[in-house]
Every structure is written in C-alpha cells, then in structure tokens.
Amino acid sequence: MKTHGSYPNIRLRRNRKSSWCRRLVSENNLSPNDLIWPIFIREGKNIKEPIDSLPGVYRYSLDKIETLIEKAIRKKIPMVALFPNTPKNKKNSKGSEALNKNNLICKALRLIKKNYNEIGLMCDVALDPYTDHGHDGILNKNGYVDNDKTVEILVKQSLLQAEMGCDVIAPSDMMDGRVGEIRKALDKNNFSLVQILSYAVKYASNFYGPFRDAVGSKISLKGDKKSYQMDFRNSKEALREISLDINEGADFVMVKPGMPYLDIIKLVKDNFKIPVFAYQVSGEYSLIKNGIKNNIINEDAIYESLIAFKRAGASGIVTYFADYIADKLK
Ligand code: PBG
Questions:
Q1: How far is 320 from 329, CA to CA, in rounded Å?
Q2: Which residue CA neighbors atom 7 of ligand 1 most closely?
Q3: Residue 245 domain-assigned?
C-alpha cells in the first residue's frame, strides 16, 4: 500500500477527534439484521430454567416460546435457532427421537409457524441432542461415527423438519456428503425453497462445553469429536470443506467457533461469494459474560466482539447476546 505523506501534515487522530466524525468514517456497523438468536427448549410447563455454565441463557418450556418469538420479531432479529434439551429417557444409541414428529423441535416448529411468518426458523441437523452417547451420528461396532449410515438418518431428520415448517436446515454434524444428499431429498419432496446453512467449517473445539450442558449431551459424551469435526490446526482444509458444500448446494456457510477463528471467516470471505455466518459459541459467550460479571472487562466488550465478526466479513452472527445487543443497537 502506498502512503501519502507523513507527520506532521498527516495526523490520523484528526478523524477520531469526535463522535460524529468517528461515526462518519466507521468501516463496519452492526444492526439487529445481523443477528441469529439461539433458543433452548425443554419439556414441561411454565419453565425458565437457568443453565449454570451459560449465565443469562435459559431453557424454556414450549408454552414460553411464543413470547420469545414475539420478542425477537419486535427486536427485528431475522432468525432464531432452536435447540432441544431431550429428556434422558428418550435418548438411545441411534438417536431415533430425532425422527419423532412429536419431538420438541417439531412441536416448536408447528407452534411457531401457526402464528408467525415474519421470522426465520433455523434448526440443527445432527443427532447429538438425541443419542445416549452424545455423538452427532451413529456408531459402528468400533465406536467410529459411521458416515453414510448417519447421512441417511440426517436426510430423514431434514425432511421432517422441513415438513414441520423449518426455513433453514443447518447440518452441524460434519459428515461428508450430507449437504448434497439433503438438498436432493428436499428438492424431490417439494421443498426446493427450504435453505441449507451448512456448518461447513466446524472445528473440534474446546469452546462448546456450555452448549453441551444446555442440550444435555455433555454428561453422556464418550470421547471427543475429532474424527469428524475439523482439526483446529488447519485452515486450507477449511477452503476444501466450503467448496464442497457450495457445490453440494449450500445457500450459506458457517464458521464455528467465532472469535478464535476470525482468520478463517476472512479467508472464506475472500475466496468465495457466498454469505458467511459466524457462530460465537457458548464458551466464548460465557467467558465474556463472566468477565463482565466479575468486573474484569466492561459490557461494551460485547459490541466489540460482535463488530469483530463484521470486520472479518461475516454476514450474520449466531450469538447468545442477540437478545441483549438488539436493544443496545436501537
Ligand atoms: C451440535 C452442535 C454443537 C454446537 C452447535 N451444534 C456442539 C457440538 O458439536 O458438540 C455448539 C454451539 C455452542 O457451543 O454454542 N452438533
């Protein structure tokens, strides 16, 4: 980059001298339109249950869901992501509750779609909330997650969710080939307008702990997910993942986790012309939240953390701060 002159005729602080000018020259902005709000649902009635490792986030019983959706619409949040906390007695090794048309997610989708059309509904496709071993797919006899058998189930899970009114199918399982198979099945069944948000670059991360508490998959999880989620030492491999998923028909792609992976967001953004979403995951949220609670950092760190995603090139951000920051942005 060529520089034009130097101090003292150049003073970069001149444009920072007042708020009006900083606003005028800001390169990135955050609006409620950028937010995706994750919501955890559970069985029961009239329940708003705190999650210890995710302070300020709750599991809600289904009767509370409409109020939350109205809140999201009022705050101009374009989409919510629904995650179920499946009771232990409904989990098994095949995660068959994922295909029950009366499971929590299906009930929530029907309930919301009956009355609200002005908000997008996104649902994960993966088996971890439903398996008793906590993995995203089914295991073969060696304990390895079987790719192709899992994809067959994920296709069924996707069709069921589309049938119930899901707008955006979000495979978060990292099986090979699932986006293409899901796209094919959706098209064959008249769901050609149902979108796919692929968790294309999802790392085997240590930042997912509180989420696993929230959906109840942590207590049961045997081993780690390194044989299907990406190795966090790699970035070129991320481009291969993205390119495959785009070819298979993904409408948008996700990079996950968020803040430790801003380089990956930028890399994807610079190499492809597809909308890229970032997931500020549960561990990141809890670190910031606890930092604020303990007076280590101040609350404006939240806005700063979200702007970082925009600067890196993200179109949208899945964040547990969505509810809070949407108000702040008004
Ligand atoms: C499930 C899934 C996970 C997250 C979103 N979907 C956890 C995992 O893969 O173990 C993590 C989200 C978060 O930590 O906020 N496949």
A1: 15
A2: 208
A3: yes
Strands 168-171 and 120-125: parallel
Rounded Cα gap, residues 129 and 220, in angstroms: 10
pLDDT of residue 63: 97
Ligand 1 centroid, distance to 90 Cα (angstroms) = 20
Note down the domain range covering 250. Answer: 31-328
Residue 113 φ then ψ, to 5°: -65, -25
Segment 284-308 shows an average pLDDT of 98
Pocket test for ligand 1, best of 208, 280, 317 (most atoms within 8 A of CB): 208
- pLDDT given at position 330: 83
- Please indicate, yes or no, if residue 126 is contained in any of the structural domains: yes
d(CA 211, CA 218): 8
pTM for this entry:
0.97
Quickly state the pLDDT bin for 1 (edges 50, 70, 90). confident
Write the CATH number for 151: 3.20.20.70
Q: Is residue 107 included in any domain, yes or no?
A: yes
Atom of ligand 1 nearest to the CA of 283: 14
Is the separation of the CB atoms in 273 and 310 below 8 Å? no
Q: Does some domain include residue 323?
A: yes
Q: Average per-residue pLDDT in the chain?
A: 97
Q: Domain total for the chain?
A: 1
